[in-house]
């Protein structure tokens, strides 16, 4: 579940950054190309980093530790 949340947040960030960059140029065609390039590039880089992070750190174990910690705090 942790990996899914991180991928969703990075996707939202990539879309927001692409939309922001698309509004900057004066010509529409340049904005479309810039926004698409930045959005896709950012998404690829961030998703690669999340995949690398999931290879290094076991997200299932992190979820278990987090649930155990929350259980101790709540009860």
Helix vs. strand class: mainly alpha
Quote the beta fraction.
under 5%
Overall 3D shape: elongated
Give the strand tally. 0
Give the low-pLDDT segments.
none
Distance between the termini: 23 Å
- Helix-strand topology string: HHH
Summarize the amount of helix as a percent range. over 70%
Structural domain count: 1
Largest sheet: none
Explain what this protein looks like in three dimensions.
With 75 residues, the chain is mostly helical. It has one domain. Helix content is 88%, strand content 0%. The chain has 3 helices and no strands. The protein has helices at 2-22, 28-56, 59-74. Helix 1 runs antiparallel to helix 2 (28-56).
Briefly say what this structure is.
The protein is mostly helical and 75 residues long. The chain is built from 3 helices and no strands.
Record keyword descriptors for this entry.
75 residues, mainly alpha, 0% strand
Layout of secondary structure:
Elements: H1 2-22, H2 28-56, H3 59-74
């Amino acid at each position: 579940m942790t990996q899914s949340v991180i991928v969703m947040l990075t996707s939202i960030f990539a879309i927001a950054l692409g939309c922001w960059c698309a509004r900057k140029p004066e010509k529409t065609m340049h904005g479309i190309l810039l926004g698409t390039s930045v959005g896709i590039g950012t998404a690829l880089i961030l998703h690669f980093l999340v995949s690398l992070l999931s290879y290094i750190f076991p997200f299932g174990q992190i979820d278990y530790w987090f649930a155990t910690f929350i259980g101790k705090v709540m009860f």
